[in-house]
Specification:
The complex is a heterodimer of chains A (205) and B (130).
Chain A: E1 3-5, E2 10-18, H1 25-35, E3 45-48, E4 54-67, E5 70-78, H2 86-93, E6 98-104, H3 110-126, E7 136-141, H4 155-162, E8 169-172, H5 181-201
Parallel strand pairs in A: 2-5, 2-6, 6-7, 7-8
Antiparallel strand pairs in A: 1-2, 3-4, 4-5
Chain B: H1 9-24, E1 30-35, E2 40-45, H2 53-73, E3 82-84, E4 90-96, E5 100-106, H3 112-129
Antiparallel strand pairs in B: 1-2, 1-5, 3-4, 4-5
Helix pairs in contact in B: 1-3
Classes of the chains: A alpha/beta (205), B alpha+beta (130).
The complex binds guanosine-5'-triphosphate and magnesium ion (MG).
């Protein structure tokens, strides 16, 4: 849960980008980091392996100004998508307030998307959190590949695989071109902040 | 386990007072109290310290989680002392209760033994408050 500091009048909100390995989570944050430089007061922190795969997480703090007199500090994280890193994925999920699930549109990755979403559900359950009730946005990434002749799944098929019961907001996107990267981010921030408003109304107690 | 900590203003002020008295006055550069989700709860420094505490907190929480997982694998509950020594500055980590972590950054002029003593004192006092 978000940490509210009544002395500094500050709220720290944790938003995690989740999804299968190589799906584009890190690329989403890199784009946000470039595009919104003025709202980002420090360097993006990344813990990666020699070949650029996320080993532990990426971390990007993002200021959205004040709500009800509190400074809201959004903290974006990505998890490592590779199956073998589940222990670290769980550590990153600790205290999560909102989730972006970055699915890979490539036809080849259909099964990996489904497994990763299932893994998210299990990991949240281990913290007594429910995927159905946490603020969630699904992003169908790599839509640009269709134009290059690489087989991608139609949105309807991705929706059927991943979002038929969740009914989360979703965006077709391309993290490399930036298409809908900001829209995805804005949506998850707004859903998460709305879910926290109630807590703020109570003055953090 | 997941958790959330909400501190009220007077708790935060008491914690700051303890850290100021036990650690800042000892000559450490910077102390940061965080939770295991990587949130900063309190940070204080000696006025000459410009570290990015939010990034530090994210990394420290992850690092601590990784080290605890290693402890479990070899059958330990946890490692009591976590300490990274640098050429000039070092970082000391101390767990407070089950969910908080105190990071202390200090230079060569502060002895580790004395620091550990003071951290333990601060730790006990903070535990009484939360
Ligand atoms: N064509 C295309 N390539 C993309 C897109 N998003 C990411 N990529 C590429 O896919 C590869 C993996 O992207 P990352 O952002 O590192 O993926 P990740 O989800 O962080 O992967 P892990 O850290 O292993 O979990 C990189 O080579 C990216 O350039 C996209 O929208 N379109
Ligand atoms: Mg990555």
């Amino acid at each position: 849960m978000a940490l509210i500091n009544p002395k500094k009048k500050e709220v720290q909100v944790k938003i995690v980008y989740y999804g299968p390995g190589r799906g584009g989570k890190t690329t989403n944050l890199e784009y946000i980091n470039k595009k919104f430089k003025s709202r980002i007061k420090s360097e993006m922190v990344t813990v990666k392996t020699y070949n650029d795969r996320t080993l532990f997480f990426d971390f990007l703090p993002f200021d959205i100004g004040m709500i009800k007199g509190y400074t809201i500090k959004i903290q974006f994280y990505t998890v490592p998508g590779q199956v073998k890193y589940n222990a670290t994925r769980k550590l990153v999920l600790r205290g999560v307030d909102g989730i972006v699930f970055v699915a890979d549109s490539m036809t080849l990755r259909q099964e990996m998307n489904i497994r990763s979403l299932e893994n998210l559900r299990e990991n949240l359950a281990s913290f007594n959190k429910d995927l159905n009730s946490i603020p969630l946005v699904i992003q169908y990434n790599k839509r640009d590949l269709g134009k290059q002749g690489i087989p991608i799944l139609p949105i309807e098929s991705l929706e059927k695989d991943l979002n038929s019961t969740l009914k989360a907001s979703y965006f077709p996107a391309s993290a490399v071109t930036g298409e809908n990267v900001a829209a995805t981010m804005k949506k998850i921030i707004s859903l998460t902040v709305i879910s926290l408003k109630e807590k703020l109304d109570l003055g953090g107690k | 386990m997941d958790f959330t900590f909400d501190f009220n203003k007077s708790q935060l002020e008491s914690i700051e007072a303890i850290l100021e008295e036990e650690l800042i006055e000892l000559g450490v550069e910077c102390v940061v109290l965080i939770d295991l989700a990587g949130n900063v709860i309190v940070n204080l420094d000696n006025g000459r310290c410009e570290h990015d505490v939010y990034s530090l907190a994210a990394l420290a929480a992850a690092n601590f989680g990784a080290v605890s997982a290693m402890a479990n694998i070899i059958g330990e509950e946890e490692f009591s002392l976590l300490f990274h020594k640098g050429e000039n500055d070092s970082i000391h980590f101390s767990k407070i209760g089950t969910d908080l972590l105190l990071l202390t950054i200090f230079g060569k002029d502060v002895s580790l033994g004395f620091l550990r003593l003071k951290v333990t004192e601060a730790n006990n006092k903070i535990k009484e408050l939360v």
